[in-house]
């Protein structure tokens, strides 16, 4: 089988992990601090705060920006459920807009129409590694005095007009095992705001900055030095990973003819966490996934049930109609684009997809 994803772990990552194990400093320590500094430099921000997961990064970012009970956060339903769960964790209400058919990101034409006096933040998701139109989003946020919290969990090193994901507001990243760079698990909050950074550091460690003195209610959102050691190596290799993914994506787009391939607009640096096509024309997407599986290719569906259709979300937001996301969730299919693909793999993927 050609898998949909495969972690790229080499000898250097293994050596880094064993060095931490041998040191005896397993919990959050010097490697975590080094990882934070290196990640902040990559994103072009003042602060990066390491946490336990992408979910806890989103949770921390919302809390640090003062989002809480009674507030509303505008976002997209076409995302992994953690985006929405984090909003609900802090007691806020997600407010959904539909998505753009070409980019799969939130339709910014609809955002202003759902802003209310309770709106506290806009939470764009840079889905599949492709950033939102941040100029338009920033204009809306400035006009209405709203916070921007970027879900950049799939967008490590992605760019918009030369500026990195995670540098426009408060960013949240994931280092889950399938991400473009990974630590097995872990996350990062990025910001240029000293106060937000300080709050995130308190939130992640039981509200303490000195041992056994707790200024606020916090959580155990700590990263380990084991994860950070792996992250440091992966971050160093990230440009190489990104180049390979881009090269694979370009080949697929040039050769695939049977389905709708992704569009990348000028000024955007896509990092291809997923290479997502559309099985359009009324064809059966699930049958296409099954057909590729029988041919030895694992295709993924991200995401078959949009967030506004999930039972626990519906109980909060009610019956929301979003026709574009509901249609595209039945058409999207992600193909392997990871760094382990060989030329033979790519040719096989193209050949089998073109038989659909």
Walk me through the structure.
With 356 residues, the chain is α/β, with parallel strands linked by helices. It folds into two domains: 11-99 and 106-232, Aspartate Aminotransferase, domain 2; 238-353, Aspartate Aminotransferase, domain 1. Helices cover 37% and strands 15% of the residues. It is built from eleven helices and 14 strands. It has helices at residues 11-23, 30-43, 54-64, 82-89, 134-144, 194-204, 225-255, 285-294, 311-317, 323-328, 343-353; strands at 47-51, 72-75, 93-96, 119-123, 147-151, 159-160, 163-164, 170-174, 187-191, 208-210, 213-214, 268-269, 275-278, 332-335. The strands form four sheets. Strands 1-9-8-5-4-2-3 form a seven-stranded mixed β-sheet, with helices on both faces. A hairpin with a 2-residue loop joins strand 6 (159-160) and strand 7 (163-164). Helix 3 (54-64) runs parallel beside helix 4 (82-89). The radius of gyration is 20 Å and the shape is globular.
Defining traits:
356 residues; 7-stranded mixed β-sheet; 11 helices; globular; alpha/beta; Aspartate Aminotransferase, domain 2; 3-stranded antiparallel β-sheet; 2 domains
Set out the fold topology.
Elements: H1 11-23, H2 30-43, E1 47-51, H3 54-64, E2 72-75, H4 82-89, E3 93-96, E4 119-123, H5 134-144, E5 147-151, E6 159-160, E7 163-164, E8 170-174, E9 187-191, H6 194-204, E10 208-210, E11 213-214, H7 225-255, E12 268-269, E13 275-278, H8 285-294, H9 311-317, H10 323-328, E14 332-335, H11 343-353
Parallel strand pairs: 2-3, 2-4, 4-5, 5-8
Antiparallel strand pairs: 1-9, 6-7, 6-12, 8-9, 10-11, 13-14
């Amino acid at each position: 089988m050609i898998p949909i994803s495969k972690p790229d772990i080499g000898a250097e990552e293994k050596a880094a992990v064993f060095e931490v194990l041998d040191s005896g400093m397993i919990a959050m320590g010097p490697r975590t601090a080094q990882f934070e500094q290196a990640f902040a430099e990559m994103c072009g921000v003042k602060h990066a705060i390491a946490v336990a997961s992408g979910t806890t990064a989103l949770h921390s970012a919302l809390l640090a920006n003062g989002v809480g009970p009674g507030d509303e956060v505008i976002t997209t339903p076409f995302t992994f459920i953690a985006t929405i769960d984090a909003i609900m964790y802090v007691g806020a209400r997600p407010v959904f807009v539909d998505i753009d058919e070409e980019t799969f990101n939130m339709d910014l034409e609809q955002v202003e129409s759902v802003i209310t006096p309770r709106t506290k933040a806009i939470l764009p998701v840079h889905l599949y590694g492709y950033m939102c139109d941040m100029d338009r989003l920033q204009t809306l946020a400035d006009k209405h005095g709203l916070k921007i919290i970027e879900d950049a969990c799939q967008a490590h090193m992605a760019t918009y007009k030369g500026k990195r994901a995670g540098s426009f507001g408060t960013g949240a990243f994931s280092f889950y095992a399938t991400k473009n760079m990974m630590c097995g698990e872990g996350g990062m909050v990025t910001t240029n705001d000293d106060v937000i950074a300080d709050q995130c550091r308190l939130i992640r460690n039981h509200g303490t900055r000195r041992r056994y003195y707790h200024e606020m209610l916090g959580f155990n959102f700590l990263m380990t030095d084991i994860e950070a050691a792996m992250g440091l190596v992966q971050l160093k290799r990230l440009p190489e990973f990104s180049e390979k993914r881009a090269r694979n994506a370009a080949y697929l787009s040039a050769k695939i003819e049977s389905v709708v391939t992704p569009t990348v607009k000028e000024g955007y640096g896509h990092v291809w966490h997923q290479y997502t096509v559309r099985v359009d024309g009324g064809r059966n997407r699930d049958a296409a996934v099954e057909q590729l599986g029988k041919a030895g290719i694992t295709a993924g569906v991200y995401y078959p049930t949009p967030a506004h259709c999930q039972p626990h979300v519906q109980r909060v937001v009610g019956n929301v109609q979003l026709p574009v996301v509901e249609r595209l969730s039945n058409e999207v299919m992600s193909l392997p684009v990871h760094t382990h693909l060989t030329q033979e793999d790519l040719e096989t993927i193209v050949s089998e997809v073109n038989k659909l």
